[in-house]
Structure formats: structure tokens, C-alpha cells
Amino acid sequence: MTQDHHEEEPHGKTVRRWLYAGLGAVVLLAGGTAVVRTGAVPRALGLAQAPGATQEADARKTRVRETFEEDIARLGPDGVELASLSIPTDAKGYFAPPLESEMPDGEDGASIRRGRDIFLNPGANATDYVGNALACANCHLNAGRLANAAPMWAASGVYPKYRSKNDQINTMEDRITGCFTYSMNAQDGPTGGPPPQGDPIYKDVESYIHWLATGAPNRVDLPGAGYPALDEPAMAYDETRAKATFDENCSVCHGSDGQGRQDQNGRYAFPPLWGPHSYNGGAGMSRVSTAAGFIYANMPIGKPYSLTEQEAWDVAGYINAQDRPIDPRKVTDADAPVAPAGPPSASGTGTVVPAN
To answer: What global pTM score does this model have?
Structure first.
């Protein structure tokens, strides 16, 4: 980040904050999640690509997907050879997932659409197994499509695989179970846990995830997978510095108290970052290193890579130093208080206490 950025005039900061606040109000009144998902906020704030660039990028994606579908249809001895089949990619070289128009009809398409709806709004479409206000799309941006925001097209082809988190081979269903358990805190939901093994919810979400990977190579670590891995921070965590960065860049959308902002129907336009309605201490985002990579590449909304790596580390540390529901694997007595873990480390979590 340049010196000019850090020395921005106070008036400029005030104007920018008012713009964000005004757009936040529009988002809340207009239905929150749908407005954010369609990119209206960055466009209205002038932070997104210029319309011409966006249209060109969208047109390229459409062309490469149409070409891919045409080639697939002609595969065979008298048509397109397998060796000449190209992986569809966007202008930045990342995999280009299928367009909404490519969703099939019939039962397959119905399952994909149900999975997409669960992915975007599990609180409404998998209600019995959600214990907070989060959705899959809060961490896997643009409905699981966006590179460097843990896109699902990159995850689909690498499972089953070993994970040290639970020291076993994990299937995609296992991963989704984990998301319900940790990111959506299912144990505080109506049934007290994630969907049971083999539940149709898993089949539908997996249908959607695998559909997003249509045309992607299998068992390959694709560019744009996961979140960027940042170098260790140059400066140790400092709460005052971290809070100042959070207040300037994050509080307009997520609130100074980190509790997010709801629309007129009670749905979260911007998710809570800590407290009883956020992810618990076992979620991947509770690792400061993971959160830092996500923030650096994707936040604030519409301004990817606008924070320095140090600022991303600071914000990640600040968020994960706040109270949140405990990792369910660490619960031994539901009534026993859990002592704060202290300042967050680069690789670990911050304060993890029951948020009652």
C-alpha cells in the first residue's frame, strides 16, 4: 500500500465511509444477500470493474463455456479428439465454472438448484441444522465461484483426501458436515447437530459443487484454490492498531461491534464476525492465517487486495480475538467457563469462549 493511501485526507475517508454507509442502507432495504451477491454494492461505489471490462470478461466466460460444451458434444472418433479438449478459463487464467444457463433439466438439475439454494441460504433451506446466521457463500464468495475465495470448483476434484484436522481420509460429505458443525455451529440449531450421514442435503450440495467443477481437471491443485497463503506478519499483533484498521475498513458493513447488519426481513446482508451468531472456534476461519488470506484477497467487499498483508493479519487477529462459540470438540462441561486464549498467534486462534 502506498504512502499516499495511508496519508489520505480525513475528508476523503469521511466521504468514503458515508458512501459505504449509504450503500449499506440500500442493501438492507433492498434485500441484503441478493444485492451483495449480484455485485450491486461494488458497482454503485465505483469499486468494481468498469462496465466495459465486466461485460468483456463475462462475454469471454460465455464464449469459452459455449466452446467447451460444443466440443464435449462432439467428442468421439469422428469428432473432437480428447487431446484437443481445452479447460475453460477466464481472462485471468482461472478456471471458468459453468454458467447458470448450463444447469441441466430433470432430476439432476433439480438437485443442483436445491444445492445452490442451500449453499446461498442454509438458514432457510437447511434450517434444522444451522445454529447461527452464516451461509456457505459467506466464505466461498460469489456462490462458490470466485477464485482465491475457496471456490468449490477447485475443491470438488481433490476429495476424498487426508486431512490432519481429524487425522483421516475425508470425503466431500465429511467436509460439508464440518461446515455445518463449525462454520454454521449446528449444535446450537434445532436438532443439535449437522445433517445425519446420507441426508439428501449432502447429495444436493454435492451435486451443486460437482456441477461447478464441470470441465475442471480431477486431482489437480488448481490456481485460485483456497485462499492466498501470506508470509508471516512483520509486526506482532497489536490490538490498538488492529482495531483502527477494522474500524476504518470493516465496521461500516459488519458494524463496530462485529455483529453484521440485517435487512428489513431479518436476513443478514453482512454476516456477524464474532459473537453467538458467527462461526465457532473450530471453523477454518478461526485460524488467523486462514482469515488473513481471505481478507487480503477479498475484503473490503469490492476492494480486493486493497489492504496490505500486515493489515490483513491485523484484522484477522482482531476478529479472532473476540468471543465466539467454543469449538464443540473442546466442550467437556457445557456450564464450565472457558478462559480466554489471549492475543491471537499467526497460526492459531484467538479468544475462544462460549458466547452466551
So the answer is: 0.82
